[in-house]
Design goal:
The chain contains 15 helices and 13 strands. By secondary structure, it is an alpha/beta fold. It folds into two domains: 189 residues, Rossmann fold; 158 residues, Glycogen Phosphorylase B (Rossmann fold, 3-Layer(aba) Sandwich).
């Protein structure tokens, strides 16, 4: 498949991705899959990254380098200058460094906007500055992973002609074994960074009362982050440390997907979460707040269950309904798998990305 796509794309420039990263989370998962599926010569410049993350990309066959400073990024771009690379930025730091390099070297640039987390003054400043940079002539195309993110850019005055929506997608994956319906225990899962924007506290607001009402219900919170100790203290205070567990960051999520009876997404803000698509592909019913791009993906009552943003009682009620009605879970699984395959299939979306790159390069040359 990769060779066929490469043959279909006459773009001969390297595609240089810029991403500030602290670990293998949603944007990193999207980028790794993207580089493997989308035709072209990809190079990832991490703006500071754990050694394990760099090794993971290299083991997957993706060329990458960890840059410690803006000067190192510009040095990398200078080495590639004769090949006239195309820059694709991811997140705020990647956008700023990419914009400076593209302006200095007059290179074509695409900005991928995964979402915003304006939870404090610094993050609000980053969001504002990101939107202002996207208005400038340096950035040829802004690719938003959800319609909600596109609306934010349009409202900030970014030209409509620059804006495209290409949601995240998944490559083919072998089917997981069927979930064991005979198991007396029922497992709800949270997957993500244990930080404020992802709402792990809201997950506990919903799950603690449910666990107290339903002795067969357990929960697991997969991930790590600054709120871990506070979350553990709440679990301990509720006397549920044997039933709500925090195993930390997990490298292999599919082994957990095979055990979950439901995925709960309690985020305060989102784009198109990769874990949502993974659950749909793997046959795990989803219960989520209707934030960001999630309502674009999930049709309530058909492919998942939605609650109003931050309405923890609604989230708990939807999860409880799923717990008490296994037949509903089976119906949601069938439709969710169909939706993921038809709308969030990476080989199809990779073709659209190829056209974005080609268009940005062609426009810059014109």
């Amino acid at each position: 498949m990769g060779a066929q796509l490469n043959a279909a794309l006459p773009l001969q420039r390297p595609i240089i991705h810029l991403l500030g990263s602290g670990g293998f989370y949603g944007a990193e998962r999207m980028l790794l899959d993207h580089c493997q599926a989308t035709p072209g010569q990809h190079l990832v410049l991490f703006l500071g990254a754990p050694d394990e993350l760099v090794a993971r990309f290299r083991a997957a066959g993706v060329a990458c380098h960890s840059c410690a400073s803006l000067g190192e990024v510009l040095s990398q771009l200078r080495r590639c200058h004769d090949q006239q690379p195309l820059i694709n930025s991811h997140n705020f730091k990647g956008l700023v460094f990419g914009w400076l390099g593209a302006t200095l070297w007059r290179l074509p640039m695409v900005a991928t906007q995964h979402g915003f987390t304006p939870s404090n003054r610094k993050q609000r400043l980053y969001t504002w500055l990101s939107l202002q940079l996207c208005r400038t002539a340096t950035i040829d195309t802004v690719v938003c992973v959800a319609e909600s993110i596109k609306r934010i850019h349009r409202q900030a005055g970014v030209a409509e002609r620059k804006l495209q929506v290409i949601p995240n997608g998944l490559p083919e994956a072998p089917a997981l074994p069927a979930h064991g319906q005979a198991d007396e225990r029922w497992l709800a899962g949270y997957v993500g960074r244990l930080s404020q924007e992802k709402g792990p506290d809201l997950f506990l607001d919903s799950l603690i009362p449910l666990c107290q009402r339903h002795p067969q219900l357990d929960a697991v919170m997969l991930g790590d982050g600054p709120e871990r100790d506070a979350l553990q203290a709440r679990i301990d205070a509720a006397g549920l440390n044997q039933r709500i567990r925090l195993p930390g960051f997990q490298r292999d999520m599919r082994q957990w997907m095979a055990r979950l009876d439901a995925l709960v997404i309690s985020s305060r803000t989102e784009g198109t979460p990769m874990i949502l698509l993974e659950a749909m592909q793997d046959g795990v019913p989803v219960v989520a707040f209707g934030v960001g791009g999630i309502p674009d993906v999930i049709e309530h009552g058909r492919s998942g269950l939605l609650a109003r943003p931050l309405a923890v009682d609604e989230l708990a009620a939807q999860l409880e309904a799923l717990l008490l009605d296994p037949a509903q879970a089976d119906e949601l699984i069938v439709q969710a798998r169909r939706t993921q395959r038809e709308r969030y299939h990476l080989p199809t979306l990779a073709q659209r990305w190829a056209q974005v790159y080609l268009g940005a390069a062609t426009e810059t040359c014109a």
